[in-house]
Amino acid sequence: MVSTKTVLPDKYSAGPHGLGDPEDRSLRKVETEVLIPKLMREKAKTEKCLMEVADFNRCCKESSLLMVVKCRDENSVMKSCLASWYNNEDFRKLCTEEYLNQRSEYRRTGVKKAMKRI
Questions:
Q1: 17 lies in a domain?
Q2: Distances in Å between the alpha carbon of 62 and those of 66, 77, 92, 99?
Q3: CB 31 within 8 A of CB 53
Q4: Which pTM value belongs to this model?
């Protein structure tokens, strides 16, 4: 019989699939500093700053190699929009909650949910 003993604490190795406790709401440093900010950037680009991102992309396509010079204004507007959402505490809480729900579902089922791509 093979032992399933692990060196990880139970909250990281327990659960129905050995992926961690689905009800655990604590966050590791990598989650708070890398994964949640990544989710925030993606959501801001695809849900909150659609117009700004589209304007910048259009400018870049039209300007080709001169985009660095010609698209400064669009880039500044887009960065400003993204930064405002990135620094919004309510948005951070919303994204943290979404991340925790996705992690809980993964730990419960063992199936990763693919991120939506536009």
A1: no
A2: 9, 18, 34, 36
A3: no
A4: 0.76
The C-alpha atoms of residue 50 and residue 103 are separated, in whole angstroms, by 26
The pair of three-digit structure tokens given for residue 24, joined into one six-digit string: 């655990």
Instruction: Give the whole-angstrom CA distance, residue 9 versus residue 26.
Output: 13
Straight-line distance from the first to the last Cα atom of the chain, in angstroms, rounded to the nearest whole number:
47
Whether 105 is covered by a domain: the verdict is: yes
User: Which residue range(s) make up the domain with 47?
Assistant: 27-109
Domain count, the chain: 1
Distance CA 57, CA 93 (A): 29
Token pair 């507007």: residue: 77
Predicted confidence (pLDDT) per residue in 61-74, tens digit = 999 888 889 999 99
Per the domain annotation, does 31 fall within a domain?
yes
Cα–Cα distance measured from residue 60 to residue 43, given in angstroms and rounded to the nearest whole number: 21
How far, in Å, CA of 37 to CA of 42, rounded?
9
In a domain, 89, yes or no: yes
